[in-house]
Fold this protein.
Amino acid sequence: MSNNLQTNWDVIVIGGGAAGFFAAIRCAESNPNLRVLILEKASQTLGKVLISGGGRCNVTHACFEPAKLITYYPRGGNELRGAFSRFQPADTVAWFEERGVRIKTEADGRMFPVTDDSKTIADT
């Protein structure tokens, strides 16, 4: 471990997966003065992102109605209703496109980066 590691953090995010990174990015964007640290126990961050969708990263689904979207989640759908109302697939697509990542929709509604490479998402 480096002795140069800062020890005072405003926000510490536990977990270097998609949700952890998104939370850390949202914190940093909402207040650029925050010192944000992500802690991950695995040897690699965003590991599941890199393998999801067969290595292409299934970013979201092209179902833009929260009430319909929860039907794709037979377990826990009702608990997701509030979250899907606050941040929908359209918001996910916009978030990536604002950062230069173009998203495509496949015939079955799954949405992937146009590069078909999960590294595109992880590098964003």
Observations:
- The helical segments are 18-30, 47-55, 66-69, 77-86, 89-98, 118-122.
- Residues 46-123 form one domain.
- The mean pLDDT is 93.
- The CA atoms of residues 13 and 23 lie 7 Å apart.
